Amino acid sequence: MRKRVLDGGVRTLCTAASLIAVAVLAGCAGPRSDLPRPDPDVVKRISTEIGERRVLLRADDSDRLFAAGFPIAAVVAGNFPDVPSRPAIGVRLHDLTGYDDSEREAALALFGVGERPSVAFVVDGSPAGVAGLLEGDVLLAVGGRAVRGGDGASRQAGRAIAAELKSVGEVHLTVERDGERLEFTVGSVRIADMPVRLRGSNRVNAWALGRRVEINAGMLRFVENEHELAFVVAHEMAHNALRHHRAVLWNYLLGTAGDGLLALLGVLTPNLGGLSAAAARSEAFEYEADLFALHWMAEAGFDPQQALDLWPRLAARSAPPRMGRPVIRSHPPAPERTAFMRAVASELRAN
Q1: Handedness of CA 232, 236, 237, 241 (dihedral sign)
Q2: Which is deepest, 101, 142, 200, 318, by most CB within 10 Å?
């Protein structure tokens, strides 16, 4: 009985709230002009155009990141044999099921992609490019074994290619191109096993996460050329290859231990020791990552001279520095950092 009374009271309150909301909205001030109603067909067409632009922009971002990351990863593998590496051919695969439901119509219209995996991008000069694979090639078989379509088809095909490369160092691919069945034997190069992943954030930032690199879409909008992008990727890979994250963590633990000892003596330092120790060598780590990045991008065929304006432009976006040096600072100031990079780039050009 009590429940029925409570339910009735709740329904009454909801009804009253709805009536009040309708009354308030009816009394709200509106525009003075008679506004035309948009044509639903036009709205639908514009919505489709926006969806296609979104899909095309993300595909372009992925291609640019892959084009920069693949040759840098190959250089890292050649210079740091202790860094985990793997054989690769230099292609990015995609299939229709890899897109969100709302994006599949746009992906089909833009790329003609179906449920069977196809080549989305080929890195210039990569084994796949040298062998003659082209964007749009539909993958039929890997090592003589048929490739299936459907959910996760591209991932499965990628694993099949990786397994073939691991066992024999090359892979035999059967593709369909313009209705014709073609056969390719593709060699491989070893690349550092550091996946470079695109994040959808518009913030201008990038991260080294130990075994992988993440680059925001905002960073791809910010860089002015592919040389700057290659430098960003190489810089983050350098942090990983040089194990800077482990060193920072170790320094932090040492500083935290110092905080604990001081606390036993009655001196409270709310994590100041840990944070200070973590930042103690951070500026030097940034310089070192810049140094290796410039060398690696040059070895990969990019021009270090065209990456020297990155830090000044990034600094110009930020608020002016406060008076004095911060107590804790993890990155060098842009002027010092840029001067350092110019000296390194000049030496590279001279040699």
Answers
A1: positive
A2: 142
- What domains, with CATH codes, occur in the chain? 85-192 (2.30.42.10), 224-350 (no CATH)
Q: What is the dihedral of CA 48, 50, 53, 55, to 10 degrees?
A: -70
How would you classify the pairing of strands 171-177 and 138-142?
Answer: antiparallel
Give the residue from 96, 184, 92, 188 showing the smallest Cα distance to 140.
184
pTM: 0.80
Side-chain-side CA neighbours of residue 21 (13 Å): 6
Q: Which of 164, 196, 188 shows the shortest CA–CA distance to 73?
A: 196
Tokens coding 341 = 């990079």
127-150: b or e for each residue (b if 16 or more CB lie within 10 Å)? bbbebebeeebbbbbbbeeebebe
In the block, residue with structure tokens 């700057």 = 228
